[in-house]
Amino acid sequence: MGNSILPLTTDDLARGLLFNPTIVVPYDQIEQTYRYRTEFAQLQDKHRTLQIQLSSKAVALLKEMESK
Amino acid sequence: MNTRSWVNIVEGINILLVLALIIRWSWGGWTPSSPTTLYTLFDSTDGMDDLHAPDAVSNRIVKTFQQNGGIITVEDIIRHLHDHPELLSTPTHTALFEQMLLTQTTLLNTEEELQIVELKMNKLALKIYNSLAETDKVRIRSRRNTDSVEGIEAQYWNSVLKQIQDTENTEEPAHRTP
Fold first, then answer.
1. Is B121 in Cβ contact with A46 (below 8 Å)?
2. Which of A59, B53, B107, B142 is most deeply packed, by most CB within 10 A?
3. What is the 3-state secondary structure (H, E, C) of B25-42?
């Protein structure tokens, strides 16, 4: 995802840990990664929504200017 | 004028209106006076690959608009308004422009937040990955596609397969009925 410097993505790592239960990592690190991943997804969603809103407002302005 | 005369006049007007509509239809059809704002993105000349390609709709929208006079971005509008501020001539224009500016500022702030969170997330994931034993690293890295397919997608495939089997089992007695 993005310009990741990882040899695999965060999602790949999470899936790998999920399906290889013998690999043990500190709980707090996994929990924190999950928080970041959730926040990242929410921000992506917000970003997409704002892009749509900006385009809609630009179209509304153009229509308003053309109607005069 | 009696009632019968009025009825005749109204009937005459109706006949004239119908004739006028028929003449208009035969000359120009029922096309609206303004050009249509609907565009066909895909038609019968498109193959299955065209429909199912990644981002097929977005890419076709761009292509269609390029063929119909180019694409105008929000940045193009802002640049034009910067050169022609007199175009924002009414309070409504100004209000809409201010809303755009506010949205754009929020958008840029969100982009900044996205980059910060992504950096933190990747750093932590890398820290976790680097703390693993070499054999575990290899196992996760080499099986990442298999893990994804077997662990995630397989559930959907199996669920669909079960639904089909259940449907077939439910319908089977009906097929046997003569």
1. no
2. B107
3. HHHHCCCCCCCCCCCCCC
